[in-house]
Write a structure and sequence with these properties.
Length: 597
C-alpha cells in the first residue's frame, strides 16, 4: 500500500469514525514464501483501489514486509506491483494490461522466494524483482484483500463520493508453499499446492473480516462490507448509511466535455450498453444527436452532433441511462454543463516536471478540466550542463515516477518525440524502465545511462501513432527505480502529402532519408533514370517552406545529398516533422523526415 503511514499501527485510538466504509478480508495464518494467486474483477472508480497482497503485522516500520497487487480505479489498463521493505521503502512498478481489469475476471499471482518476487497475470510472468531488498522480505505475512479510498490524490486520483457504491469481486484464492526442487506448481515446479478457497462460505477457521483503518485511508473497514454471495467474495466501498452489497443509486455524470468531433459524457460507473447509446436519451437544445458510441472504458459515451461547433454547446440533458447493477438504476433527467477548453496548437511541446520554457507549455496534473497532464509522479530539477540540443532547459527539470502522461488531441495520426536524460545515476543498471505509447511498447528495458551516458540527451521518436478516442497516452512501467520523462513533443501528421504519387512516368525515385530521425545532418538518396535538374525543398507541417537545397543538374544514376537541417536564414531548425519535396523538370515527389535537436 503505497504511502501508508506508520501511524496505522502505533496510534489507532486517535482515529475518528469515517463517513465511508470499506472492507478487508485476511487470513488468520501468516506465511513465509510461496505462490499466492487470486481470480478477481476490480472496481473502476476514480480515487479508490482494489487489492490482493500479503502483509506482516508490524509494531515498528523497521519490520515492514509487504507484497502488493493493487488495481487503482482511475485506470482502465493498469496494475500496480509493489514490495515494501523495512523502513517502509516502496519498490513500485506498473504494468499496462491489454484488458480492462474491471470489466471481467482475470487471475493475478505472485511468487515470493528468498531471491525474487515475480508477478503473473493470467498465468504469464510480467514482472520480477531480484534486488538486494528482496532478502529483507523474510517475515511471515498474512494474505489480504481490501477495497479503500486513499487520501493521496496524486496517486489514486481525486475522491468524489458520487462514485459510491463500488464493488470488487473475488472468485477464489489459492496458496502454494515454497518447496524448491520438489513442488508441483509454479515456476520450475518449485511450489507445492496447499489450499484453495472458492468463497462458497465464510471459512472462519481461515479468514477474518477486518475492523480497522489508518491515517491515509479515507474509510473504515467494517465486516458488513465483506459479503459472500453465490460463490464470490464481494468487497464493498460504501457510505456509512448504505452498507453491504446493494446499489439503489442512479448513475452520476462525472463530467461532459466538448471535444474536437463531438461531446463526451463520462459517468462515475460503467453504464448499460443499450440505454447509454440511445440518442433519444440525450438532448442538446437546437441540435440533433445522430449517433452515440460507448467508449472502451464502458463509463463514457461520445455524442455525434449535427452542425457541431465545440464552442456553441453549453449544456447536455441526460435521461433514462441505466447502470449495470441488478436491479438496474436509471437517471431520470439530469442537466450537465459542458466543459469547453481551448484546444492545443500543434506542434504540442510540454516541459514535463517544469515551468513554461520557450515554446514548451508548463507541466500539470491531468484532470477533466485540462488538455494535457500526468498522473502520479513528482517534479525535480537539476543543474546539469546539457549539450546536443537547442532546448537544454527542458532537461533541467524532470517528471520522476509518472504512471501516465495524457494529451487531448483530435483523432488521427501523430509523430511523438519523448525527451529524456539521466541526470542522477552515474552507472548502468540503476534506472531501467519500459514505455508504452498508446498500445505499442516503444521502449523496453530502457537504461538511459547505458544508452547515452549521464546528462546526455536521448530522444525517442515514434511515428504513425494512431489516436481513436481523442487521448494520446504515454504509459510508464518501472523495471528498476522510477521512470522519468523530461519533455514531450507531438506533431500532427498532414494527410495531404502524397509520397511517390505522380501521373507522369517515373524519371527518378527518391528514397527515405537516413538516418531518420536525425540530429545534425541526414542523407537523401535519389536514383535518376535520365539526367535532370533537381531542387529539394523542405516544408513544415503547416506547409510553410523553411529551406531549399538547389541541387542543380544531375546525371542518370544513384545520388545522395546531405542536408544539415539549417533553414533559409542559416538557423538550425527546431525539432519536428518536416516534408522534403524533390522536384525536377517533369516530376515531383515528397517524403517526411524528423529532425531532433
Amino acid at each position: 500500500m503505497k504511502n501508508v503511514l506508520v501511524v496505522i499501527v502505533l496510534f489507532p485510538l486517535f482515529l475518528y469514525p469515517k463517513p465511508y466504509k470499506g472492507a478487508e478480508y485476511r487470513t488468520k495464518e501468516a506465511y513465509t514464501y510461496g505462490r499466492f494467486e487470486v481470480r478477481m474483477k476490480a472496481a473502476q472508480r476514480e480515487g479508490m483501489l482494489s487489492s490482493f497482497f500479503t502483509y506482516h503485522e508490524i509494531t515498528t516500520a523497521a519490520e515492514w514486509n509487504e507484497i502488493d497487487i493493487e488495481i487503482l480505479g482511475r485506470y482502465s489498463d493498469d496494475v500496480q506491483f509493489n514490495t515494501i521493505t523495512p523502513g517502509q521503502v516502496n519498490h513500485v512498478s506498473h504494468y499496462k494490461t491489454s484488458f480492462n481489469p474491471s470489466l471481467e475476471f482475470h487471475t493475478y499471482a505472485f511468487e515470493w522466494t528468498p531471491t525474487y518476487v515475480a508477478w503473473f497475470i493470467d498465468g504469464k510472468e510480467v514482472y520480477r524483482q531480484t534486488g538486494s531488498h528482496i532478502e529483507s522480505l523474510n517475515r511471515p505475512q498474512k494474505i489480504m484483500m481490501n477495497i479503500w479510498n486513499p487520501t493521496y490524490a496524486n496517486w489514486a486520483g481525486e475522491w468524489n463520493e458520487n462514485v459510491l457504491p463500488a464493488f470488487a469481486y473475488y472468485d477464489w484464492v489459492t496458496y502454494s508453499s515454497y518447496t524448491p526442487g520438489v513442488g508441483n506448481t509454479g515456476t520450475d515446479n518449485n511450489f507445492t499446492f496447499q489450499w484453495k478457497d472458492d468463497f462458497d462460505t465464510w471459512d472462519q477457521t481461515r479468514w477474518e473480516k477486518a475492523t480497522h483503518t489508518w491515517a491515509g485511508n479515507g474509510c473504515d473497514f467494517v465486516q458488513a462490507n465483506a459479503v459472500l454471495k453465490d460463490g464470490t467474495l464481494i468487497l464493498c466501498l460504501t457510505k456509512e448509511t448504505a452498507l453491504g452489497y446493494t446499489d439503489n443509486i442512479a448513475p452520476t455524470i462525472a463530467y461532459a466535455r466538448a471535444e474536437h468531433d463531438g461531446i463526451v459524457v463520462m459517468y462515475t460507473e460503467e453504464v448499460d450498453s443499450i440505454t447509454a447509446v440511445n440518442p433519444a436519451n440525450y438532448l442538446i437544445t437546437g441540435k440533433q444527436i445522430s449517433d452515440v458510441r460507448l467508449l472502451s472504458n464502458q463509463k463514457g459515451v461520445k455524442l455525434t452532433v449535427s452542425d457541431y461547433d465545440m464552442n456553441a454547446v453549453s449544456t447536455v440533458v441526460v435521461m433514462n441511462v441505466k447502470d449495470r447493477f441488478n436491479p438496474a438504476n436509471a437517471i431520470s433527467v439530469k442537466s450537465v454543463a459542458v466543459i469547453t477548453a481551448t484546444p492545443l496548437h500543434f506542434p504540442v511541446k510540454i516541459n514535463c516536471g517544469g515551468p513554461e520554457y520557450k515554446d514548451y507549455v508548463a507541466d500539470q496534473l491531468w484532470s477533466p478540466l485540462v488538455e494535457y497532464g500526468h498522473t502520479d509522479g513528482a517534479a525535480y530539477t537539476n543543474t546539469a550542463v546539457i549539450t546536443g540540443t537547442l532546448d537544454p532547459g527542458v532537461y533541467n527539470s524532470e517528471l520522476n515516477g509518472p504512471v501516465k502522461y495524457m494529451v487531448r488531441v483530435p483523432n488521427g495520426i501523430y509523430t511523438v518525440i519523448l525527451m529524456m536524460s539521466e541526470n542522477y545515476f552515474a552507472q548502468p543498471g540503476k534506472r531501467i524502465f519500459n514505455i508504452f505509447l498508446q498500445d505499442s511498447l516503444v521502449e523496453s528495458n530502457l537504461d538511459l545511462y547505458a544508452k547515452v551516458g549521464k546528462s546526455k540527451v536521448y530522444q525517442k521518436v515514434v511515428q504513425n501513432v494512431h489516436v481513436s478516442e481523442n487521448i494520446l497516452a504515454v504509459h510508464f512501467m518501472a523495471v528498476v527505480e522510477n521512470p522519468l520523462i523530461n519533455g514531450i513533443q507531438i506533431f500532427s501528421m498532414p494527410s495531404g502529402v502524397n509520397e511517390h504519387k505522380s501521373s507522369l512516368p517515373q524519371q527518378w525515385n527518391i528514397g527515405q532519408n537516413y538516418p531518420n530521425p536525425f540530429n545534425g545532418s541526414t542523407i537523401i538518396p535519389l536514383q535518376c533514370s535520365f539526367p535532370d535538374n533537381i531542387t529539394i525543398r523542405f516544408y513544415d507541417t503547416l506547409g510553410r517552406k523553411v529551406a531549399e537545397l538547389p541541387v542543380g543538374f544531375v546525371e542518370a544514376g544513384k545520388h545522395a545529398f546531405r542536408w544539415n537541417a539549417i533553414d533559409d536564414s542559416g538557423k538550425p531548425l527546431a525539432s519536428g516533422v518536416y516534408c522534403y519535396v524533390v522536384e525536377g523538370q517533369v516530376q515531383k515527389s515528397a517524403k517526411k523526415l524528423v529532425v531532433i535537436q
